[in-house]
Amino acid sequence: MAIPNKETLLEWYRQMVLIRRFEERSKELFHQRKIGGVYLHLYNGQEATGVGALAALRPQDHVITAYRDHGLAIARGVDARRIMAEMYGKTTGVSGGKGGSMHLASREHNFWGGYAIVGGHLPLAAGIALKARYKNEDEVVMCFIGDGATNNGYFHESLNISQVWDLPVIWLIENNLYGMGTPIEAASGQTKLIKRAIAYDMKAFDPVDGMDVFAVYDTVQKAVDYARKKGPVLLEAMTYRYEGHGMSDKMYSARSEELEKYKARDPITLLKNKLCELYPDVGPTLEKIEKEMEAAVAETEKFAEESPNPTAEDLVRHIYV
Ligand SMILES: Cc1ncc(C[n+]2csc(CCOP(=O)(O)OP(=O)(O)O)c2C)c(N)n1
Ligand SMILES: [Mg+2]
Questions:
Q1: Which residue's alpha carbon is at the smallest distance from atom 20 of ligand 1?
Q2: Whose C-alpha lies nearest to ligand 1, atom 2?
Q3: How many angstroms is it from 135 CA to the middle of ligand 2?
Q4: Which residues make beta-bridge pairs with 144?
Q5: Hey, which residues does 106 pair with through a beta bridge?
Q6: Rounded to the nearest 5 degrees, what angle is found at the Cα of 67, between the Cα atoms of 62 and 72?
Q7: What is the pLDDT of residues 137-168, one digit of tens each?
Q8: Which of 141, 145, 256, 260 could make a disulfide contact with 62, Cβ separation 3.0–4.6 Å?
Q9: Atom 11 (ligand 1): residue with closest C-alpha?
Q10: How far is the CA of 148 from the centre of ligand 1 (A)?
Q11: Is the CB of 45 inside a 6 Å radius of any atom of ligand 1?
């Protein structure tokens, strides 16, 4: 593939570092009870998949995902301060503080969330794509799917109808090998998830290395091109999450060897190495970006802290009666 220009690569680096720092700080704020709720699902380790995939989209395209949504919202350009405010339950949050971590959405970015019911967003992705096809609009839908969501009815129904109606959807499985604490072999008869495409006679590409932002971008670009012109595509990115399923999941202590293996191929380090190879004098620029992203995360926290709490009136706004 042709390597994108330096400015683009630095932007990918900026986004990936921002996501990592944002998640690290969110974890601390959750433990301090500043971020409420029972769950908080972090994206650490999967940054190259989200950033590489979203880099292949245009502004008019649509993005939808499950509850592990902070990193994707950031990569789509949603203001990280408003994401943090959402997790604090403040009125300035992207969803007015009513959605929280799992329900980030931004109409302006065609970022439609943030869904907690496993697989529940797949029919919505098909619906958005049907709108685009019906109105003859030049839009595609990028639907992120956990490996754990590939065994329920939503997956089958949505992929099937998208093929029947040639809907412009990129079904991107983020295969991080686990659904909560259940390893993929314990949940799927067919663990090579890309083979699911055969059941629908759907276009598919070989599984891509989800730790390598170049590989993800390259494949997703081809898939987006196909979806825009012809119809649905199935993709599988092989990735890994560094944290447990959510904050209450301590399963990872039992998987430390596997974790170390993946951390040795950390997506941010891989991109950094590539940048240093291409541009030997880039070191100070990367350090500057790292400092800026740290400051940006501190700024999200300050914004969230200082934002107003919802009022009693806010409680009943946006409700159909
Ligand atoms: C329909 C439904 N069943 C079960 C659950 C409980 N649950 C929440 S997340 C999850 C695992 C999903 O794993 P995966 O799709 O691989 O996503 P990951 O967390 O690895 O990103 C389960 C079973 C749920 N939220 N919805
Ligand atoms: Mg998973």
A1: 179
A2: 118
A3: 34
A4: 172
A5: 111
A6: 45
A7: 999 999 999 999 999 999 999 999 999 999 99
A8: 141
A9: 179
A10: 6
A11: no
